[in-house]
Specification:
With 139 residues, the protein is mainly α. Helices cover 87% and strands 0% of the residues. It has four helices and no strands. The protein has helices at residues 3-28, 38-47, 52-99, 102-138. The longest helix is centred in the middle third of the chain and has 48 residues, at 52-99. The radius of gyration is 32 Å and the shape is rod-shaped.
Length: 139
């Protein structure tokens, strides 16, 4: 191979490596524009799959929001279950009152009070979880 061919081949190789490196670096250095709201950042990330750092944070936030919503739904189920228990105990209490069983009436009253206490706690938990989920979603 002559010196001219070798120089041309080397120059072509350097140009190819340089263009590949700049293409890779441009893919990695994609950053979201500053000052985007969360909703706009989510939309921006869908259009720019190579923006890793910003979009990774968006995905993590989305997972956190989903987990919070799941927790809220679980709390709502607990509240409904507590209501059913209270209703059933009240029916049982009325039956015991009609039958005249004083000891069972007292036991049922205590049960109803404990279920009502649980119900209040579960409602509080649900409200706080809803508030937290809304705060996270607003960020």
């Amino acid at each position: 191979m002559s010196n001219a061919k070798l120089a041309a081949f080397t120059a072509a190789l350097i140009m190819a490596v340089g263009s590949n490196a700049s293409a890779q670096s441009s893919q990695l250095a994609v950053k979201s524009p500053p000052g985007l709201t969360r909703a706009r950042l989510v939309a921006w990330c869908k259009d720019h799959p190579n923006a890793r750092a910003d979009c990774r944070q968006v995905r993590a936030d989305t997972r956190e929001i989903r987990a919070d919503r799941k927790e809220v739904r679980a709390d709502a189920r607990e509240v409904r279950a507590d209501r059913k228990e209270v209703r059933a105990d009240r029916k049982e209490l009325r039956k015991d009152i009609k039958a005249g069983a004083k000891k069972e009436v007292e036991a049922d009253k205590k049960e109803i009070n404990s279920y009502r206490k649980d119900l209040r706690e579960h409602r509080k938990d649900r409200r706080s979880d809803v508030r937290d989920a809304r705060k996270v979603a607003r960020k």
